[in-house]
């Protein structure tokens, strides 16, 4: 007997195809491929090495950037939240890393740093998301300080971030873009505002640099549009195996809290995956799981190491059969809806014990 436990298959050909789709949507823009959170759970270095076409990579933490450098990645890398410590400035300079600036503290750290070559800086403007970025009223002050400093490379990139671009009917995106245009249109600096949803849904926002994350991994960034519809291919497939089959009778319950009750005599399949692997604990009864060419519904609460599914009274399934939790035939977007979350969270929550192929 040999039973496979939770396994993630990474399809790097799909990744490269998705990159091609993105390029065809924004042929005149450079691409900053976003690899934060371990490449959205796909593996930081693995994804970076599979994208030699990208113009730059974006990460959230300096540790991620240094991991890429250690692995031999020489492409430009941008810290998307900037530095968190003045001492990081010297590390940026030494490792040829670029940074976003969005606070006075970061500005001062850069202006006063003792470095022997200029840093490449991206100035982040808050156009309405109210998370990171300087207020439009601070723009002139930051722009002129950065432009004048010998510590800053001439190629200062001006950027912002959309809050609602996934919804094509939401007016916020146009309002944010108008604010961005008003501040930056007259300047010759490169500009960047589009994430995946901006790339797919808001062509006018592409500017000089696009910043795709989710799309690269084959997931739709737009509400009401499937990945298939956009031509994207899921890069991650999550699978595990049936480790037990239980016969249950009408009226009996399954799992913790007896949260699922059997309506008709049936068989319950136990699959070796749970929230300890990153399968969402809040996936509700009915969440689809692919098994032997059909969808079977989750029945009962997700445990740490197992889930239970209703196989039906006439099932032919056996111990050792492989189930797909999400992937090409079962979009992670759909599972996310059943778990009242977003695909981003499911992808980057895959845990250490899951084997990658
Ligand atoms: C994460 C991130 C992105 C990528 O967003 P997606 O929705 O995954 O495409 C782009 N820009 C910034 C600043 C980010 O933090």
UniProtKB/TrEMBL annotation:
It is an enzyme of class 5 (isomerase). InterPro entries: Ala_racemase, Ala_racemase/Decarboxylase_C, Ala_racemase_C, Ala_racemase_N, Ala_racemase_pyridoxalP-BS, PLP-binding_barrel. Residues 235-357 form the Alanine racemase C-terminal domain. Substrate binds at residues 131, 304. Keywords: Isomerase, Pyridoxal phosphate. Pathway: Cell wall biogenesis; peptidoglycan biosynthesis; Amino-acid biosynthesis; D-alanine biosynthesis; D-alanine from L-alanine: step 1/1. The active site is at 36 (proton acceptor), 256 (proton acceptor). Coiled coil: none annotated. Its cofactor is pyridoxal 5'-phosphate. Its EC number is 5.1.1.1. Gene3D superfamilies: Alanine racemase (3.20.20.10), Lyase, Ornithine Decarboxylase, Chain A, domain 1 (2.40.37.10). It catalyses: L-alanine = D-alanine. Belongs to the alanine racemase family. HAMAP family: Ala_racemase. This is Alanine racemase. It comes from Thalassotalea eurytherma. The gene is alr1.
């Amino acid at each position: 007997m040999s039973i496979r436990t939770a396994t993630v298959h990474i399809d790097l050909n799909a990744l490269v195809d998705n990159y091609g789709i993105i390029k065809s949507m924004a042929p005149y823009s450079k691409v900053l491929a976003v690899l934060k959170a371990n490449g959205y759970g796909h593996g930081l270095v693995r994804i970076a090495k599979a994208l030699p076409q990208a113009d730059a990579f974006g990460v959230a933490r300096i540790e991620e950037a240094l991991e890429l450098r250690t692995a031999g990645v020489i492409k430009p890398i941008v810290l998307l939240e900037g530095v968190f410590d003045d001492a990081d400035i010297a590390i940026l300079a030494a490792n040829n890393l670029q940074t976003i600036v969005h606070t006075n503290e970061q500005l001062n750290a850069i202006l006063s740093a003792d470095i022997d070559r200029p840093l490449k800086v991206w100035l982040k403007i808050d156009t309405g998301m109210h998370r990171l970025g300087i207020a439009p009223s601070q723009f002139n002050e930051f722009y002129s300080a950065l432009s004048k400093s010998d510590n800053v490379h001439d190629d200062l990139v001006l950027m912002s971030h959309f809050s609602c671009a996934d919804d094509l009917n939401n007016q916020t995106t146009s309002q944010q873009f108008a604010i961005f245009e008003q501040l930056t249109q007259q300047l010759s600096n490169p500009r960047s505002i589009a994430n995946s949803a901006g790339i797919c849904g808001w062509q006018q926002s592409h500017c000089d640099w696009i910043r795709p994350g989710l799309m690269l991994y084959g997931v739709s960034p737009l509400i009401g549009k499937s990945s298939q519809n956009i031509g994207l291919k899921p890069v991650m497939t999550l699978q595990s195996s049936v480790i037990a089959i239980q016969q249950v009778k009408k009226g009996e319950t399954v799992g913790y809290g007896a949260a699922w009750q059997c309506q008709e005599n049936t068989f319950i399949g136990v699959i070796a995956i749970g929230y300890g692997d990153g399968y969402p604990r809040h996936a509700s009864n009915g969440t689809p799981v692919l098994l032997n060419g059909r969808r079977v519904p989750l029945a009962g609460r997700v445990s740490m190491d197992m889930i239970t599914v209703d196989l039906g009274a006439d099932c032919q399934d056996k111990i050792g059969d492989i189930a797909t939790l999400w992937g090409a035939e079962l979009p992670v977007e759909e599972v996310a809806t059943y778990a009242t979350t977003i695909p981003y969270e499911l992808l980057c929550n895959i845990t250490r014990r899951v084997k990658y192929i």
